[in-house]
Specification:
The complex is a heterodimer of chains A (about 200) and B (about 230).
Chain A lengths: L12 E2 L8 H4 L10 E9 L2 E11 L4 E6 L5 E7 L6 E5 L6 H15 L9 E5 L5 E7 L2 E7 L6 E7 L5 E7 L8 E6 L4 E7 L4
Antiparallel strand pairs in A: 1-7, 2-3, 2-13, 3-4, 4-5, 5-6, 7-8, 8-9, 9-10, 10-11, 11-12, 12-13
Chain B lengths: L1 H5 L1 H22 L5 H4 L4 E2 L3 H14 L2 E12 L4 E12 L3 E8 L3 E6 L2 E5 L4 E5 L4 H15 L9 E7 L3 E8 L2 H6 E9 L5 E8 L4 E11 L12
Antiparallel strand pairs in B: 1-8, 2-3, 2-12, 3-4, 4-5, 5-6, 6-7, 8-9, 9-10, 10-11, 11-12
Helix pairs in contact in B: 2-5
The chains are: A mainly beta (about 200), B alpha+beta (about 230).
């Protein structure tokens, strides 16, 4: 899919007009004006599964994510910024380890801010379809986003860092208004985060 | 997390988290306060020995409790609340069932020294006896329901209050480690029957979880199947 980003190789792709100025945010499901989301969540890690509620709230210049158990226990509370590292406001001792926080922060940050904001953006359009693809880079590696022509939002994101660091995020939405479910998986390990949006009304 | 998995020590930490999480969840679940009651003026309890005595009597007389519950998770900094609802069952000795119905179905059963959790995708069974933390957690849960926790002077400092309709007991963990997670536990007892009307667990940062127990029925027949692991 993302090989299309190499424009010179595949003729079925073309470069669309200039990327909109607000492109980096306009394709995201989690913008400042999207309101809060509550997800039923499970984290599968080898033979272990952690379940609970994931709460996402956009703030003016950041996004806040809290993970709590069904019974109300707060597991972690993190704040994410587009260009800065996440801030951990709270994390229970049991998982408050640097590598854990780093990976968790990176995964969730990519879920919120899909496209890196810099001059290395490349966007291509798949001829005969409504899909666009965006490649962006930052210090953590390269991100490839598939943009749905139907919803105008990211439907799949692949992030590649080092040789063994590869992450996939899939967004599912039936009506194109909100993300109904999200799946975050790593290629090289049995780690998967599954989120299903809860209707609180 | 990726790096953690490559590191056996950190992986063990993660593996342990599942048990820890359930334990802490239960612990926190038991410690949240009641907004309705918080609005009432409370004063220092006038007859603490009398209250304890009545609680003791209630504890002996009550064989079972079934009720609805409303759980409110308040994220103070974000001015947000998350509401969960469900049904609660207790049958002596130490059979407990929390059945969440909103925002989604989730079941927790404690019985025969085991703890069982289930949602639409996963189910888990833990042996409470083999895990000291689970053992403590179980004691805490039944202790709150039956009031035994008020005898635990070693782990909590206790203050007693009352208003027109309720007795109100404030528990502050003595351990600094525990206080880092949980500042205070409040338990509200209905003056009519001495049953727990609400629990509030106040975390550091003032976020809290509050559970109101409503539509209580005492000593009705609750079949043991309610506490089976399925």
């Amino acid at each position: 899919m993302f090989s299309g980003c190499s424009r010179s190789v595949y003729k079925k792709y073309e470069t669309p007009p200039l990327l909109p100025a607000d492109a980096v945010d306009s394709y995201s499901w989690f913008r400042q004006d999207t309101g809060r989301y509550l997800f039923q969540s499970s984290i599968d890690i080898y033979q272990n599964t952690f379940t609970g509620l994931l709460f996402v709230k956009p703030l003016e210049k950041s996004r806040r994510i809290l993970f709590i158990t069904e019974t109300g226990l707060k597991i972690f509370d993190m704040e994410f910024f587009r260009t800065a590292d996440p801030v951990v406001h709270y994390c229970i001792d049991a998982i408050n380890r640097k590598p854990v926080i780093k990976t968790l922060g990176k995964d969730l940050s990519l879920m919120l801010f899909n496209i890196a904001e810099n001059d290395e953006l490349i966007m291509v359009h798949e001829k005969g379809s409504e899909k666009n693809f965006i490649r962006s880079k930052d210090k953590n590696g390269t991100r490839f986003c598939s943009i749905s022509g139907k919803t105008g939002k990211v439907e799949e994101l692949i992030s590649r860092g080092g040789l063994s660091d590869k992450l996939n995020i899939k967004f599912f939405s039936e009506r194109g208004l909100q993300p109904d479910s999200i799946e975050i998986s790593h290629y090289n390990m049995k780690l998967k985060i599954h989120l299903v949006r809860l209707n609180e009304n | 997390m990726v790096s953690a998995l490559k590191d056996p020590i950190n992986f063990l930490v993660l593996k342990h988290m599942n048990k820890m999480k359930t334990y802490l969840s239960w612990f926190l679940l038991m410690i949240s306060p009641a907004g309705v009651f918080a609005q009432d003026q409370v004063k220092a309890m006038s007859d603490i020995p009398g209250f304890k005595s009545k609680l003791e009597e209630m504890s002996k007389a009550v064989q079972s409790i079934s009720c609805d519950f409303v759980q409110e998770k308040s994220l103070v900094v974000l001015s947000e609340k998350i509401i969960s609802k469900g049904v609660f069952f207790f049958r002596k000795e130490n059979n407990i069932r929390w059945e969440y119905t909103q925002p989604y179905r989730y079941l927790i059963v404690i019985s025969n020294g085991q703890l069982f959790t289930r949602d639409d995708r996963n189910q888990k069974l833990y042996d409470i006896e083999s895990n000291k933390m689970f053992g403590e957690m179980n004691k805490f849960i039944s202790g709150c329901i039956q009031g035994d926790i008020l005898r635990n002077d070693k782990d909590y400092s206790t203050e007693y209050f009352e208003n027109g309709s309720h007795y109100f007991v404030k528990l502050v963990p003595r351990s600094e480690k525990m206080r880092a997670m949980l500042n205070e536990v409040q338990i509200w007892f209905d003056k009519k029957d001495l049953t727990v009307s609400a629990l509030k667990m106040i975390e550091s940062g003032q976020d809290y979880t509050k559970i109101d127990f409503i539509n209580k029925k005492l000593n009705t027949e609750i079949p043991l199947e309610k506490f089976s692991f399925k």
